[in-house]
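note to self — DONT lose this again. spent like an hour looking for the file last time. sequence + predicted structure for the chain T wanted, 355 res
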Amino acid sequence: MPLNPLFVFDQLPTTSAAAIREFNDRYLAAIGASQPSGWADVLGELIPTDRPMITFPVSQLRTLYRRTEGESRFKKLREASFDVKAEEFDDGYEAKLSDLFQQVFAYRNWQQAPSRLVNAEEQFRHTSTAALLANGTSTNCVDGKHFFATDHPVNMFDASVQTPSASSIWSNYQSSAKNVLGSSATGNTGAFLTDNLQAEVVSMQTGVPDENGQLLGADPDTILVPADYYEPLKNGLANARLLSIVTANAGNEVAAAALENVYKGRFNVLPVKEFSMATGTTADWYLVDSKLVRAGVAPWVSMRQTMPQSLALRVYDESSDYFKDTGNIKMSSHIWYGFALALPHAIRRIKGPTR
């Protein structure tokens, strides 16, 4: 009885040609698809649903105790909302059935196809979320302002509510270019300083109010950066001591001192390879408070609509008309997703230098 043509020996190759083929096989499999880094799923809300659209309500209860004078106080329960609608996306694979019977490499590729589709779906969520953030300065959020803006209302329904600094608006966007590596850096090179980082952390800590105008307590612990700034920032923050430049006598004398790096171990730096690195784009970076995200203040929502298996994975086997016409079999994977920017309180965008 002849050997099964799909059988694969799990042994060392017996010839140099087989060794080369085995190496190429594994190499091509390894680089077949990029691996997403997980940031979009961790810092946002991934919601499975069986409905094509979900309405997300955002309440403004404004609970604030004050001295009782005369009659008790009451306020109306008010809320805004935003909708997320799922759309259909697809990809798939096709192969000659005769190749699968006769060529080990073709059969192995066919076996790997399902796992690559799963990986591609995760990458799709990250790419889509990165596009949302990139367009956040021109896309409105639930309060009617651009998601990254300098004029978010403190309370969406009561314009009289103000912060302790007597402002009825707040900001989660720095529109002046600031390098995440500090004021001394040029692009992603140069001496690392924490001056720009510290200024933006303070702005987030002291500039994000709740619905009563009181500080929400935002305290960023995560930094999202383009891939080309990840290594310099990670290494800079890992230093125990940093160089500090001091000028005196109207700037005529310059002195340098090594100071303790108070930010060592403070931030989780995440590289976002999905951000554009094209010439002419800006190396924008983002501060995120993951604690607020876990508390329900999600910056974005990824909604996945679950569908019957017959619609989600469509298989054209030997019984299909397509096979009878072409001799090929194929499978088509379909996914339904909706993406939206949600609440702006837990994230701050800082415009970076132009590449």
